[in-house]
């Protein structure tokens, strides 16, 4: 196993950080790695906001669901889908298409993954913050985002102050298929995975609980998922057609 694969397979979300700063050189390399990600049609539809104002960090931590590590991490980056820059370059640009939002979201995720992997290669850790989408209109206002810019998620980075256990992933046979989608889900494999997840949650050192993966899915998908999102996106000029 080479070092890159080993790094990827050892991923953990880090939510507790020491007070040590990330050096300017490290941050520069992390951002360079982010910008080296693939970009659909080379549109480069992502803007990254580095949040250094403590008051703004605290505000975003609250908006993201009272997640203190947003304020405490050495660095907090916000990844935004951005077609405002393209509008400045080409005022006649046709925007507002659903496909363009998909492109922006995919490009932003690729950049963020590059950034996190680069950070992890330096002994740093991080966690993605999708909670910024809990109150997207307030985040847009707090970050002074113009039309055709929308916050996708945040990324906390810093020196880890914890080493959580790695969560078991779904069995490969439930995720990777050949040529066609299977006619039936392998229920035996799913049942075994549910048992594995119950054992994992009960044995881990922090936040022990009794829950299967199927139970978690029922809990999350059994309720509305940010039903305000479409209106917030349209307000910023997305999903118009």
From TrEMBL:
Residues 8-159 form the Nitroreductase domain. CDD domains: NfsA-like. One of its GO terms (molecular function) is oxidoreductase activity. The keyword Flavoprotein applies. SUPFAM superfamilies: FMN-dependent nitroreductase-like. Keywords: Flavoprotein, FMN, NADP, Oxidoreductase. InterPro entries: Flavin_OxRdtase_Frp, Nitroreductase, Nitroreductase-like. Belongs to the flavin oxidoreductase frp family. This is Nitroreductase A. It comes from Aeromonas diversa CDC 2478-85.
């Amino acid at each position: 196993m080479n070092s890159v694969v080993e790094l990827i397979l050892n991923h953990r979300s880090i939510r507790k950080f020491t007070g040590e700063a990330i050096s300017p050189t490290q941050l520069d390399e992390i951002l360079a790695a982010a910008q080296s990600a693939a970009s659909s049609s080379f549109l480069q539809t992502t803007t990254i906001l580095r949040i250094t104002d403590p008051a703004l960090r605290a505000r975003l931590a609250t908006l993201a669901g009272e997640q203190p590590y947003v304020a405490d991490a050495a660095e907090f980056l916000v990844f935004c889908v951005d077609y405002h820059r393209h509008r400045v370059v080409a005022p006649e640009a046709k925007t507002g298409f659903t496909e363009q939002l998909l492109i922006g979201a995919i490009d932003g995720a690729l950049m963020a993954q590059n950034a996190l992997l680069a950070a992890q290669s330096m002994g740093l850790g991080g966690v993605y913050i999708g909670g910024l989408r809990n109150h997207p209109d307030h985040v847009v206002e707090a970050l002074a985002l113009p039309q055709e810019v929308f916050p996708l998620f945040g990324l906390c980075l810093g020196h880890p102050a914890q080493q959580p256990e790695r969560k078991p992933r779904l069995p490969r046979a439930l995720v990777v298929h050949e040529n066609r989608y299977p006619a039936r889900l392998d229920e035996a494999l799913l049942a075994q995975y549910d048992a594995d997840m119950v054992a994992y949650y009960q044995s881990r050192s922090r936040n022990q609980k009794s829950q299967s993966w199927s139970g978690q899915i029922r809990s999350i998908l059994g309720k509305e998922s940010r039903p305000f999102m479409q209106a917030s996106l349209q307000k910023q000029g997305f999903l118009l057609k």
